[in-house]
Design goal:
By secondary structure, the protein is of the alpha+beta class. It is built from three helices and twelve strands, in the order ααβββββββαβββββ.
Length: 282
Amino acid sequence: MKKVNNEIPIKYIIFTLTGICLVMIICSFAFNGFASPVKNAVSFVVSPATKGMNKLGFYMINKKEDYEKFKSIKEENESLKKQIADMQNDNALSVQDQNELEQLRKLYKLDNEYMDYETVGARIISKDTSNWYSTFTIDKGSDDGIEENMNVIGDGGLVGIVYEVQKNYSLVRSIIDDESNVSAQFAQTSDKCIVKGSLKLMNDGVIQVFNINKDAQINEGDMIVTSNISSRFLPGILIGYVKDITNDSNNLTKSALLTPVVDFAHLDIVLIIKEQKNTGEE
């Protein structure tokens, strides 16, 4: 059986009390004899109610003003957040543009240094999972005239060599890769050597140099370039600078470390030299 709700809604009580107050107010002005007791009754009932309504009104006004202020502050805060985000984004783009411009300047300078060779610019689109650009993919392929064993330069010197070519992209092995061996020589003395990649040593910013003649008159800081007898690399391309020269235990050769001129942690754009030597193993 459905339970009957006998409670009177609060809105009806408020309407009733309001009506009684209005009737008493009218009577107080309409009947003089009735005025005094009615006015007293009205004052007793209406005055607290009026004060309460005034307080409620002021409270609601203040709350509305507080809400409007909060809403305004929130909107202003959101606007400031957007402005900060836009500024950070613009700043990031500006830094990126500056870095790319610097790389392009270096490539332009490098292109002028090797102006006897035909070159084509390429952007790196992916790399291996290590911290270094030991092997990576460029956005130029056979459709752009790229072939295997073409030399890759950038950032001031030798980057590596193209070892696989597809229609729209190619793979490059850099000189720091563990499988890389470059026939090289000292620029000042023409003494020959081999520059071998080592990702482990690259954590200290160097790679290996070995098979240096024990009588070679070489010094710390000497420049090493690609050798004229290399079967895959064009001659005279800067590789880096030698350090920590030591005599080998066989007393026939010397070894050293080499600091590459190229920053293999931050590569983006490279140049491919389209002229190449005959393919062969070094």
